[in-house]
Specification:
Main location: membrane
Helix content: 55-70%
GO molecular function, one term: protein transmembrane transporter activity
Radius of gyration: 34 Å
InterPro entries: Tim23-like (IPR045238)
Distance between the termini: 96 Å
Order of helices and strands: HHHHH
Number of strands: 0
Number of helices: 5
Strand content: under 5%
Largest sheet: none
Subcellular location: Membrane
Membrane topology: Multi-pass membrane protein
Length: about 200
């Protein structure tokens, strides 16, 4: 009795039939049937070859008075606050690392020493980063507003914006901390403005 192969429908011991490739489609014949007409993307799009517009990006005027290319106060705010926050966060983390290593006894077990160092880093880093980021946001906003009011951007704008932003940041602590903070931020802004002008 003949036993049929359940997969191929052939008798046991019989060789499989060769596959006929003469009628097979290649990639070219398959792709030629695909239409790339943009009007068929969606019936509500209302697109045709005459009305199809491509994405155009406006070339904004770049402020050449800055180290980074700037298209306005929003770019300055992003660059200034972001870089200041990251720099202060890194500096605060280094400060916390040194403080943690100094305060934790060298004879303490490694886990206790690591915990003390990490606590110092997470206390100093975010504190310094957040504070500097807030001052940078206030500074960039004031600097842009002063420049817009005066009609020019120079070192005087930076120093005035630095003094005001430092005083606003410490405005809840009293007059003396306000003056000290304003002087510190104005000095930093003045050094930044002079250094930037020297390298540009």
């Amino acid at each position: 009795m003949a036993i049929w192969d359940s997969l191929g429908g052939r008798k046991e011991g019989q060789a499989p039939a060769a596959y006929d490739t003469s009628n097979a489609q290649d990639a070219t014949s398959f792709l030629s049937e695909v239409s790339l007409d943009p009007t068929q993307l969606h019936p509500l799009a209302g697109l045709n070859q005459d009305a199809l517009d491509y994405l155009t990006l406006e070339d904004y005027a770049v402020d050449n008075g800055s180290v980074l290319p700037s298209r306005g106060w929003t770019d300055d705010l992003g660059y200034g606050a972001g870089t200041t926050y990251v720099a202060a966060l890194t500096l605060g983390g280094a400060w916390g690392l040194a403080e943690g290593l100094r305060k934790t006894p060298a004879t303490a077990p490694p886990k206790i020493r690591l915990n003390g160092v990490l606590n110092s880093i997470t206390r100093r880093g975010p504190f310094l980063g957040n504070s500097a980021g807030v001052v940078a946001m206030i500074y960039n906003g004031l600097n842009s507003a002063i420049g817009y009011a005066r009609g020019k951007h120079d070192a005087a704008n930076s120093i005035a914006a630095g003094a005001l932003s430092g005083m606003i940041f410490k405005s809840t602590r009293g007059v003396k901390p306000m003056v000290i903070s304003g002087g510190i931020v104005a000095s930093i802004a003045g050094v930044w403005a002079v250094t930037r002008k020297a390298f540009l």
